[in-house]
Predict the structure.
Amino acid sequence: MSTGAASFGSGGTRGRESALRASGPGAITDRMSSRPASGRHPTMDQVAEAAGVSRATVSRVINGAPSVDAKIREMVQRAIAETGYVPNVAARSLVTRRSNSVALVISEPDRPDNNSFLNRIFTDPYFGRITAGATTALRPHDIHLVVIPTDSTDHHQVIRYLRQGHVDGVLLISSHEQDTLPRQVHELGIPAVVSARPTSPIAVSFVDVDQRLGARLAAERLLSRGCRRLATISGPLDIPSGLDRLDGYRAYLAEHGFDAVPSVEGDFTRAGGEAAARRLLTEHPEVDGLFVASDLMAEGALRAVQDLGRRVPDDLAVVGFDDSSAALDCRPLLTTVRQPVEEMAAEMAEVLLAHIAAPGRLPRSVTFQPTLVVRDSA
Amino acid sequence: MSTGAASFGSGGTRGRESALRASGPGAITDRMSSRPASGRHPTMDQVAEAAGVSRATVSRVINGAPSVDAKIREMVQRAIAETGYVPNVAARSLVTRRSNSVALVISEPDRPDNNSFLNRIFTDPYFGRITAGATTALRPHDIHLVVIPTDSTDHHQVIRYLRQGHVDGVLLISSHEQDTLPRQVHELGIPAVVSARPTSPIAVSFVDVDQRLGARLAAERLLSRGCRRLATISGPLDIPSGLDRLDGYRAYLAEHGFDAVPSVEGDFTRAGGEAAARRLLTEHPEVDGLFVASDLMAEGALRAVQDLGRRVPDDLAVVGFDDSSAALDCRPLLTTVRQPVEEMAAEMAEVLLAHIAAPGRLPRSVTFQPTLVVRDSA
DNA sequence: CTGAAAGCGCTTACAG
DNA sequence: CTGAAAGCGCTTACAG
């Protein structure tokens, strides 16, 4: 942290190189072709000199300004290739006020142990799909993603990071109700898109899936299969998606004459699903149709169900939610409600890009429709 | 991309604010305390003016220079708090030539489908542990991690990114034999640490686990349990760790009189492990002890084994490798060789930091010892 | 211990 | 269409 030394290779040779360059374009070419750019960093002025034009013209060529004369452009491009020039991003950012990267902030409730928290984040199929979708959408724009996991103990660090101008905008994955980060980010005034309807009433763009509809799809499937003793393992009830899936499921069943639907609250983990299923079947052994609010929980639940001697789907049909890779790890293969997470993350990225390009743009929300993916468990 | 507009909030009000500030420190304080810094960005000059010192002094306070007078330091800190000042990282990087971030490049073989490739990367427990370990080690240094998944089709993009000075160094996760990225990164001259001994002979620092020792531990466990019909599901044999684990296993068994040890090559995925186990048990139904070269494969293998009617560990004992979270998802719980991945990633980060701080430092390698974690499968 | 000044490497009005 | 010049917001020798 303390030294100001150049980060790249032999910065110390720069003086010597400049001297060589001063002897003319020919010398430069010979020099560079025999030692392809590696570890040293020519400057835009040096490219300009090699091409016999001004620095401004080099800049225009690099940034694709249409006004540049074709021949000159070509000369410059040759000079760029010969010198192995690559723009310095710090210098560029300083004037453009753009970093060409965005943050993906994954905000979770407090955790006891830092390392396992991070491990869970970086290993969760849901976050994996988010990251993959956002990365894919951003790549063609040459914008990079900085992934920042956080809980409430380091919100201030995240805010500081954002304020320092490291990124042009933020994709905020936040699900629990009490999370104050969406509001803090909003107050920062930095372009942002949130992964679900924020619980506090702030004017911010977000992308969501129709959670209730998804739960209704699950209920419908179970009913149409002939299940009549229905239950559910819900997500955490302090998370809107957890609540909405439970509500949607119950609402649909109520509409069809099923009123007291047992439910056990889970925590969106495999182990949590397993424990919840065990409890549920102990208290309600008669259950023949089960909606589990995430595939990961369903994977655990399936294990418990089968341990307890029930055959799936014959004795007990199970429908999950997500259609993540976990659904394919289940035996039998999991029938589940598909949430198009990659596409949702890509949409978040697109909306964010639009906000960055036009800071005055009004916030908007985009809702995706879930679909039922029928496999073997129901 | 085309506009040079400020990325943050109401950049346009700056002129007005400066005017307000010019009316004296009192005005600034009042202004700022009623509107806590949000969306607007005071500059170091403004802090200096508010504190009645020079810009250089503010800089020294921010960077913790010891020479600053205590009273002045305090005045400056107050001014910083009142104005809500946060340094502009681009300006700082331009002069320090440091970005305070490092890249975590995850290099994998070519993949057919981009999205599923990314999904696998961001969901794999091994990469998850790497990311968690590196993040934890870097956090106290206030250095951020930019995660960059890549295959050979976009090596040039990665190289360009690195050359642009986005990061001060790179943590390179590369396992397959033919990967040319370690060499390319090495030639760039940027500080780098690789996750395993590079297959091409380049002088670069790396961190590894003693793969052969791990495999020997597994073999020893199986033998001491009384298994006498031993087999293995190996990793991909074009990956050094895959090869080394197979070799170590066979070598130990050979030393103990077991010569023809059947093996099937897997691909380090759950599905691959399942298929491999099915094949292995079909061809060698007599097997009673099995070393599976990764926990994820072991999870799949366990499923196949039990599907085929074998009881674990009584009919067939199974030892995995990694001790990732997958080991706890196995039924029975997986006995496995623990690779301390988080600690290894943290060590990679420390070594990288040392290289960044002292560019002339000689490359070195650090090897961790694996340990056997006994649970229920063997 | 502190300040004035130079300079990091770009982009972008502004002239021509 | 092109160039000279200003300026982005910092850090760091260099004097004092």
Observations:
- The domain at 11-87 of chain B is CATH 1.10.260.40 (434 Repressor (Amino-terminal Domain)).
- The mean pLDDT of chain B is 85.
